[in-house]
DNA sequence: GAACTCAGTTAATAACCATTAACTTAGCAT
DNA sequence: ATGCTAAGTTAATGGTTATTAACTGAGTTC
């Protein structure tokens, strides 16, 4: 889209920005948005304090960039699963596999997203809501093709429930410091999601 | 246990205390522990500001009372389900039914418990952890009798996943202001939990 | 290489907020 | 009735913190 000057300074700036976002995700996941100071955010990224304002207009804007990014990634991944052109059952399995991978590989942002959503600015909250809704509707649509007898409200409730199921590992990790059996968790969560959605 | 003076003043104090706890649950659920001031907590209960210190030694202690209470209630309910003397399958259904009822009737405390756990004092955190672990072990034990081929780690992971599934409604409510079809959510969540745990 | 840009720094500034102090008053016991 | 207890009030107090100001210096451009 826009031209990249590709000079050393812009590179350094881009790097600093992603380091800021990554360390912010870890800090927010651990202590919550209001439990982290701008000083904390800066020093976790190797700079101190107000330097953060060179990259984001404020603390809330940093959270916004983080959560909008996550929501976009989730939606893009979900769309890719649908675009792969499988039959409906395989598409659902692809959605489940994608979401499980996402939750296991980025537990921090998962936790921040449903913990600090309310700390977003009005505008960021609106945008995240739109992206999240679109992601949910992907699931609702596939479920509707697979189970035409279920109403849209029920399918939406089920989609949320499956997200809760899959996103539970970040929570149990955060609560108990318990490492889930590394990769061992993946097949268990996938099977539980399929069976939970299949109905009796 | 201890004698109840039963005078008007102690009654009023007990009432004020429960009002404080209830409104604190609502406020914490909405804005998070660090997003609520002592002034907010007091005025939500009809008194203003430092009066809270007549009932709790501080903000953190109030959170502690709230979460220890929830954890005790959960454990008591789980023990009741086991003590009912059903066979293992019926006991599991009783556990699921109890947890679904709890999550649907007290979404606020559910949300606070897995959002603001880290804001507890060291001692309260220890106590809540012990109670939570005991509750999880009830599930792990029943699952072990029903599915002896599954290891304890897998059963624990599955218990946590089912909690995430059932606790998802507080989250979706908080995120979207979406009222789940009142009582309509209960059977759907119960069926998903059973099927998720049943394995293929 | 001279002018400029801009990411960084450290020092204000201004709220906000948990907790404590000092005081008031309604209820309880003798 | 009278003194005491304790729940409540409004004013400090002290610390934390988001944000802005003023300044510095390395990298970029011409």
From TrEMBL, chains A, B:
SUPFAM superfamilies: Homeodomain-like, Tetracyclin repressor-like, C-terminal domain
Domain HTH tetR-type span(s) in chain numbering: 14-74
Domain of life where this protein originates: Bacteria
UniProt KW keywords: DNA-binding
MF GO annotations: DNA-binding transcription factor activity; transcription cis-regulatory region binding
DNA-binding region: 37-56
Entries under InterPro entries matching the protein: DNA-bd_HTH_TetR-type_CS, Homeodomain-like_sf, HTH-type_TetR-like_transc_reg, HTH_TetR, KstR2_TetR_C, Tet_transcr_reg_TetR-rel_C_sf
Gene3D superfamilies, sorted: Homeodomain-like, Tetracycline Repressor, domain 2
Protein name: TetR/AcrR family transcriptional regulator
Organism: Arthrobacter wenxiniae
Organismal lineage: Bacteria, Bacillati, Actinomycetota, Actinomycetes, Micrococcales
